[in-house]
Design brief:
Radius of gyration: 27 Å
Strand order of the largest sheet: 1-2
Low-confidence stretches: none
Order of helices and strands: HEEH
Number of helices: 2
Shape: elongated
Structural class: mainly alpha
Distance between the termini: 70 Å
Helix content: 55-70%
Number of strands: 2
């Protein structure tokens, strides 16, 4: 009780107790939010990568792109990804 209320004299000080409970709830809430954020990041990574040990992101090229620019940009990402995969597996032949 001395940690919660340094002036503890045997009687309960409700304002000090209320502050301590609010602080504990805040810490618990931040831990829960941090854990939830970690789970979301892990799920996002699983969806957007080929394998946990392979640091290459999934690239999708649309069948019917909205513009030639969108297609070229996606295709360039695809080519870059393929080069990264070849480098990762040691098969680059420059």
């Amino acid at each position: 009780m001395a940690v919660i209320d340094p002036n503890f004299d045997g009687r309960v000080n409700f304002s000090a107790l209320e502050r301590a409970v609010a602080a504990a709830r805040g810490v618990q809430r931040s831990h829960a939010q941090e854990a939830e954020r970690a789970v979301r990041q892990h799920e996002h990574k699983q969806v957007n990568t080929y394998h946990p040990k392979l640091p290459i992101d999934v690239v999708r090229v649309e069948r019917m792109p909205k513009s030639l620019f969108d297609f070229e940009r996606a295709f360039e990402r695809f080519r870059k990804q393929q080069k990264e995969l070849l480098a990762h597996h040691g098969e680059v032949t420059h």
